[in-house]
Write a structure and sequence with these properties.
- The chain is an alpha+beta fold.
- Helix content is about 40%, strand content about 15%.
- The protein has 27 helices and 22 strands.
- The strands form five sheets. Strands 7-6-8-5-14-13-15 form a seven-stranded antiparallel β-sheet. The protein has a six-stranded antiparallel β-sheet with strand order 9-10-11-12-16-17. It has a five-stranded parallel β-sheet with strand order 20-19-18-21-22, with helices on both faces.
- Helix 13 (about 480-490) packs across helix 15 (about 515-525) and helix 25 runs antiparallel to helix 26.
- The longest helix has 19 residues, at about 335-355.
- The N and C termini lie far apart (about 65 Å).
- The relative contact order is 0.11.
């Protein structure tokens, strides 16, 4: 018999049988000559040493590392069993997340069976899902795979360990999978693919639910443990990957996107008005477990969900959501500036290195701002040939308010990487905006059209792995509003001399004048004024009844912290970063692209949350410590630039490109009439078609129609 034989450490830990499908009695034809005889003898062995062939025609079964991003679907019904049609629709509607492969698992009292679909990877011959009609199953998994480089059977999901009766669907990446693999091998585990999915499975076998504390990465996964009769789901610490769910009695649906939960026509869909109000008034989302649709929840970052079934699989004994990680913002005053610079440099380098683990061509979004420039500079320093790194920058020539190509090109030339200047256009803008709303699943502004255009163009050019610089501002106090809280902290500590010096220098080293800084300091330290201003803006086009639906107590605590530590904590865990990464995940996956974010490495985040604010805002500069770390590594025009722009777009011009008749038609015949002031919106269109409120309304109206929500 050709190939090597591998022996597992425990008799309950065989090779993951996404390759074998022993419970279903199905073997891929390409593997039958080598595996058939073995499984005839050993597929039901319990307490014997198990030997399995892990080579196929002399070649190791591999998926070339952890190069798969995906979408997951789950359907549990203990009363009526799995509805195959709904599970299929839930998985098909997110094909954009994984157009390269699909797989299904149906779990019932008799074991686990596996099925495929039109996109199932070639060479893995499993029956189509439609043949499972009538199968007695209480739990169904669906999976969509985006292949970054290699499309082998080694990366197919659901992945299954028969002797431990574990079935897994997984969306994400473990960036420390190589380190974990070595640790598990030292404990006696034998690996048969190079997939991080297999690492996750064996980590669960070794540490149970505590495996989450071992992972550094991003994930949303669901794991059925047949021995313990439980469904174990989890989301990464900072919420880079999504996980939505809905429950009614003994029935649960879950998936990567909200639209999956809308595939059952029998489920009533009404707006969660408290969430909608907060979203429209304060422009925040994902600040708790609510979504725009009442009853449909999101598993919060850093949380796990465990569903314990009764012995007969006919009751849910417990449905438990709990936190497995908590971020602490607690400043450490024991280190010098030089020590902090060294630690930040080392950890950021490690974070980038882990996220560059890929045989596929890497790309990076380069805005020309400090964060993405630091990231690209670090990436190039770790590459033998930096010219292989492709950077992508949206550019709007002639528009100085949002065109950063000059700064991005300085970095490209300094690092020796290959820059791509992308020029978004506004053709078919109505259709583009409708498509944008469908993917981001809710309220959004016109500026995201530039990001969507950019990512679609990157996909067209064949790149599937892109790093970006999100989260740098939240970690290093990069937004101008942080000045107000920093100044307040200096006042509280009676550091008057430092306050005067920092105030003066901030007016020189930011885009804010002395008057602007004073206004910021007053505004952001006056919650009543801030809230009144937001309500006044929203009240121009939103009905008072909806405004009153907001949860005042919860939002006051989140939006109006009294000290800098609390502000940084809430922005990282509720009001800012969670909002950003929802857009990040949906936009990248809409273009079938994997996003990697070095600044969101949880170890780097924990480090930055210990750095005292006087090293983050110093000499009037925001993100001072990061500037110091890269002072001699980048052009000073970028390292010490003060005209922060963000990832902007010419939204005024784009707003004027919409057809007036198109806008007025949606306003006149709006499904969301009870939430908005129709006459006020129509007047806005007539007076100033670029008014942002128009497109906030339009996004909600489109969402209501696309997702059949009232």
């Amino acid at each position: 018999m050709s190939g090597l034989l591998a022996r597992s450490r425990y008799d309950s830990l065989p090779v993951p049988t996404q390759l074998f499908w022993s419970r279903a009695g199905i073997l891929p034809r390409m593997l039958e000559p080598q595996f058939g005889a073995i499984f005839a003898e050993s597929s039901c062995i319990r307490r014997k040493q198990l030997y399995l062939c892990v080579h196929c025609h002399g070649q190791r079964i591999s998926n070339e590392g952890n190069y798969f991003m995906c979408g997951i679907s789950g359907y549990l019904d203990l009363d009526r069993g799995v509805d195959i049609g709904i599970l299929r629709r839930m998985t098909d509607v997110i094909r954009h997340r994984g157009p390269d492969d699909e797989g299904y698992a149906l779990i019932g009292p008799g074991g686990t069976s596996f099925f495929g679909g039109n996109d199932t990877v070639k060479g893995l011959e499993v029956p189509p899902l439609e043949t499972a009609v009538g199968t007695a199953s209480f739990l169904g998994f669906g999976h969509r795979r985006l292949s970054i480089l290699d499309l082998s059977v080694g990366g197919h999901q659901p992945m299954y360990l028969p002797e431990r009766d574990i079935t897994l669907i997984y969306n994400g990446e473990l960036y420390n999978y190589m380190e974990l693999r070595a640790q598990l091998e030292a404990l006696g585990y034998t690996f048969h693919t190079t997939s991080d999915t297999e690492v996750l499975l064996y980590a669960y076998c070794e540490w149970g639910e505590d495996c989450l504390t071992q992972f550094n990465g991003m994930w949303g996964f669901a794991l059925w443990d047949g021995q313990e009769n439980k469904l174990f789901c989890a989301r990464d610490r900072l919420g880079a990957k999504p996980f939505h769910y809905w429950r009614q009695g003994n029935r649960i649906m879950f998936g990567s996107e909200l639209k999956q939960l809308c595939q059952d026509g029998a489920v009533q869909r009404r707006f969660d008005t408290s969430y909608l109000a907060a979203n429209l008034i304060y422009h925040i989302s994902d600040y708790n477990d609510q979504t725009l649709i009442e009853g449909m929840k999101t598993l919060r970052p850093g949380h796990k969900l465990v569903v314990q079934l009764g012995a007969g699989h006919n009751t849910i004994d417990s449905f438990t959501i709990s936190s497995y990680w908590t971020l602490h913002v607690h400043y450490d005053n024991s280190k010098t500036e030089a020590e902090w610079v060294r630690l930040v440099t080392e950890e950021f380098s490690r974070s980038c290195r882990w996220r560059m683990r890929s045989d596929a061509p890497l790309g990076a979004l380069l805005s020309g701002g400090l964060d993405s420039s630091c990231m690209v500079t670090e990436m190039c320093s770790q590459m033998e040939d930096p010219s292989r790194l492709q950077t992508f920058t949206t550019s709007y020539p002639g528009n100085n308010s949002c065109d950063e190509w000059f700064f991005a090109d300085l970095i490209n030339r300094s690092c020796g990487c290959t820059g791509n200047q992308i020029l978004p256009d506004a053709e078919d803008i109505e259709k583009r905006f409708e498509n944008l709303v469908w993917h981001v699943e809710g309220s959004c502004g016109l500026s995201l059209l530039g990001s969507k255009f950019l990512l679609d163009e990157i996909n067209r050019r064949g790149y599937k792995v892109i790093l970006n610089g999100q989260c740098g501002d939240e970690l290093m106090l990069g937004y101008e509003r942080y000045y107000a809280f920093f100044f307040a902290s200096l006042i509280k500590r009676k550091q008057w001399k430092t306050l005067v010096s920092e105030f003066r220098q901030a007016s020189r080293h930011s885009k804010l004048s002395v008057r602007d800084l004073a206004a910021y300091a007053l505004y952001f330290n006056q919650p009543v004024v801030r809230d009144s201003r937001q309500l006044h803006r929203a009240g121009r086009f939103i009905n008072p009844d909806l405004l009153d639906q907001r949860n005042r107590v919860e939002l006051r605590e989140l939006l109006y912290p009294k000290i800098l530590e609390n502000l940084q904590y809430t922005e990282l865990t509720a009001t800012q970063l969670t909002h950003i990464v929802r857009y990040d995940d949906r936009l990248y996956m809409s273009a079938s692209i994997e996003s990697r974010i070095p600044f969101m490495d949880y170890q780097f985040v924990e480090l930055c949350c210990r750095i005292p604010p006087e090293y983050k805002i110093k000499n009037g500069y925001t993100k001072y410590l990061m500037r110091q770390a890269f002072d001699r590594r980048m052009p000073r025009e970028v390292t010490w630039r003060t005209n922060k722009m963000g990832f902007g777009a010419p939204v005024t011009q784009w707003g004027r490109r919409f057809s007036r008749d198109y806008l007025l038609a949606y306003i006149e015949d709006c499904r969301t009439e009870k939430y908005f002031k129709k006459e006020a919106l129509a007047q806005m269109v007539t007076r100033n078609q670029a008014e942002p409120s128009i497109y906030e309304f339009l996004a909600v109206e489109l969402f209501a129609r696309q997702f059949d929500v009232s």
